[in-house]
C-alpha cells in the first residue's frame, strides 16, 4: 500500500471519493481506468488527484482505492484533465485509442423489444449508432465499433440499462 494511503487523515479524505456500491478490497478486473492510463497498473499510487479533476464527475475510487470510471454518472469528454492532474508516469496521451473497451447491447433493449426508443442514437456525439427497423415492429441497435470512442454517453442514457461498456479482456487492469 502506498505510504499516502496509510495516513488516517489522507484515508478519510480519499473515502469521500469512494463509490458507494463498491466495497471490494482489491483491484477489479471489470474496473475501467481513465483514458490514456497505459501505465496504470505499474505506476498509479491511488493519490486520487484525478478524481476531483474530472469535470464530468465520472471518476471515483474503487474498493482498492484506485480511480475507476463510472459511465452511469456521465460521459468522458476526453478533456485530458485527469492526465493533467496526475503527477505520476501513468498517462500517455500519444496512444490511440485512448482505451480498450468493449461495448455491448443486451436483449432487453427497448427497441429490440418493439418499444420505440432512440435514446442512445440521439445522444451519441459520434453518430456511431444506427437503429434500423426490423420485421415485427422491432428495431436493432448497431454500433459502429470503429467510430465509437467508448465515451460512455449511451450507457448512461439508456433507459433499459441495456448498454454496457467493459474493459476489453486482453487489456483488463489487474
Ligand atoms: S478525459 Fe476528462 S472527462 Fe474523461 S475521465 Fe479524464 S477528466 Fe474525466
Ligand atoms: S437507449 Fe437502450 S433501450 Fe433505447 S434503443 Fe438504445 S439500447 Fe435500446
Ligand atoms: S460509447 Fe460509442 S456509441 Fe456510445 S455514445 Fe459514445 S461514441 Fe456513441
UniProtKB/TrEMBL annotation:
<dbReference type="InterPro" id="IPR050572">
    <property type="entry name" value="Fe-S_Ferredoxin"/>
</dbReference>
<dbReference type="InterPro" id="IPR017896">
    <property type="entry name" value="4Fe4S_Fe-S-bd"/>
</dbReference>
<dbReference type="Pfam" id="PF12838">
    <property type="entry name" value="Fer4_7"/>
</dbReference>
<keyword id="KW-0677">Repeat</keyword>
<keyword id="KW-0004">4Fe-4S</keyword>
<feature type="domain" description="4Fe-4S ferredoxin-type">
    <location>
        <begin position="67"/>
        <end position="96"/>
    </location>
</feature>
<dbReference type="InterPro" id="IPR017900">
    <property type="entry name" value="4Fe4S_Fe_S_CS"/>
</dbReference>
<keyword id="KW-0411">Iron-sulfur</keyword>
<feature type="domain" description="4Fe-4S ferredoxin-type">
    <location>
        <begin position="139"/>
        <end position="168"/>
    </location>
</feature>
<protein>
    <submittedName>
        <fullName>Ferredoxin-type protein NapF</fullName>
    </submittedName>
</protein>
<dbReference type="InterPro" id="IPR004496">
    <property type="entry name" value="NapF"/>
</dbReference>
<keyword id="KW-0408">Iron</keyword>
<feature type="domain" description="4Fe-4S ferredoxin-type">
    <location>
        <begin position="36"/>
        <end position="64"/>
    </location>
</feature>
<keyword id="KW-0479">Metal-binding</keyword>
Amino acid at each position: 500500500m502506498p505510504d499516502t494511503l496509510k495516513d488516517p487523515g489522507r484515508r478519510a479524505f480519499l473515502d469521500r471519493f469512494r463509490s458507494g456500491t463498491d466495497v471490494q478490497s482489491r483491484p477489479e478486473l471489470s474496473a475501467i481506468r481513465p483514458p490514456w492510463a497505459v501505465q496504470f497498473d505499474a505506476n498509479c499510487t491511488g493519490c486520487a488527484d484525478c478524481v476531483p479533476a474530472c469535470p464530468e464527475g465520472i471518476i471515483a475510487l474503487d474498493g482498492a482505492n484506485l480511480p475507476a470510471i463510472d459511465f452511469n454518472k456521465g460521459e468522458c469528454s476526453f478533456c485530458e484533465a485527469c492526465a493533467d492532474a496526475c503527477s505520476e508516469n501513468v498517462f500517455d496521451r500519444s496512444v490511440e485509442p485512448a482505451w480498450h473497451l468493449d461495448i455491448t447491447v443486451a436483449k432487453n433493449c427497448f427497441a429490440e423489444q418493439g418499444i420505440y426508443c432512440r435514446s442512445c442514437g440521439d445522444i451519441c456525439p459520434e453518430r456511431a449508432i444506427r437503429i434500423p427497423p426490423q420485421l415485427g415492429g422491432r428495431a436493432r441497435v448497431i454500433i459502429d465499433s470503429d467510430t465509437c470512442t467508448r465515451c460512455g454517453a449511451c450507457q448512461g442514457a439508456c433507459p433499459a440499462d441495456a448498454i454496457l461498456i467493459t474493459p476489453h479482456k486482453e487489456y483488463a487492469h489487474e
